[in-house]
Amino acid sequence: MPPKKKMSKGAIWGIIGGIIGLIIIIIGVVLAIIFLSGPSKEDYKDAVSLVSQMKLPGV
Description:
The chain crosses the membrane at residues 12-36. Keywords: Membrane, Transmembrane, Transmembrane helix. There is one protein chain. By secondary structure, the chain is mostly helical. The protein has 2 helices and no strands. The protein starts with 8 loop residues before the first helix and ends in a 6-residue tail after the last helix.
């Protein structure tokens, strides 16, 4: 049996860089979902309570 060939340093660094890049992309997507998501139900409830507290002129 011939001896196994070792991976080149370039291939190893490419794999490591790809894994790090994938982790960064996943973290970015998760943070974007968290911070850029729309208003929550609690935000709507707060808005309704503020509007109900307002007094309309002439009413």
